[in-house]
Amino acid sequence: MKLDIKEAFDSVNQDVLINRLLTELDSDPIRFWVANYILERKLRLEYRNIKTSSRQVCRGVPQGSSLGPILWNFAINRIHEGVTIEHKSDLLIYADDLFYIYDGNFKGELNGELEKLVEILVNWT
Amino acid sequence: MDLELTTTKCKRLVLSRGYQYGATTTCRINGDEVEDVDHMSIVGLYLSSKFKLSQDAFYDECNARLSANVRILYNLTRLNIIKTAKEWHTLIIWYISNTMFSNQYPLLAIDKAARTACDQRMVNSLRLAFNWSKNTPAKLVMLFANCDSSEIVVRK
Description:
The complex is a heterodimer of chains A (125) and B (156). Chain A contains 4 helices and 7 strands; from the N terminus they run βααββββαββα. Chain A is an alpha+beta fold. In chain A, the strands form 3 sheets. In chain A, strands 1-7-6 form a 3-stranded antiparallel sheet, with no helix packed on it. A two-stranded antiparallel sheet of chain A has the order 2-5. In chain A, a hairpin with a 2-residue loop joins β3 (46-47) and β4 (50-51). Chain B has helices at residues 56-79, 85-101, 105-110, 112-129, 138-145, 150-155; strands at 11-13, 28-29, 32-33, 35-37, 39-42, 45-48. Chain B is elongated, with a radius of gyration of 20 Å. Classes of the chains: A alpha+beta (125), B mainly alpha (156). Chains A and B meet through β1 and α4 of A and β1 and β2 of B.
């Protein structure tokens, strides 16, 4: 099953991402620098020489940047732990493309597993 | 994580091993039904519910990529800047063989019709790229281009 995450890169919860960075990059001083980069992102709109005031970006990772997909991987790379069962189901992730592979034959079995996955995507921290 | 799934963009492909595994069971995410498809690409690997490549969808995608690549090779032959057979071989592998075969090995291995069709497309592409006559025998084209047939590529 191909799963599409709604506005994947723009929807990453920054608190979760920073928690993950601090855990995964334990003792590496670069983690504070990257966390600062995520937290201090600002955007401003400019149209016909009229500029708005800048606003802090509170969600997501920057798209089109080199670091964006890496940060996304940090956010998503442990998601399979809650939903994969050996010899039964697996989750393949390539950037924001998610493929859930399930080997089963009972009605409703897959739906139950998918509900679990949706729950993890929403509430996982 | 606050991530949501867009159910309308989610697709399910059932690789059935018998009637009891069939796609009759509706799959739902957040109460919405997920669309069933008969083929999909997983990071470039084409998968079909019939375990066959001999389907129009694959060939359409493949033809689109091939025609662009054949044009590149045709232009290179006209420019006359590629001098050695080795360089040509690398370009043919890159622009023709890989477009036809790469990522499709599992299905090509079990679908003889697809292998035949891939070989024919490869020969036609080479004829076009090098402006060879349509009557040039397929074996000669493959020999000139130093290319393996899909069966040999898959075996390798």
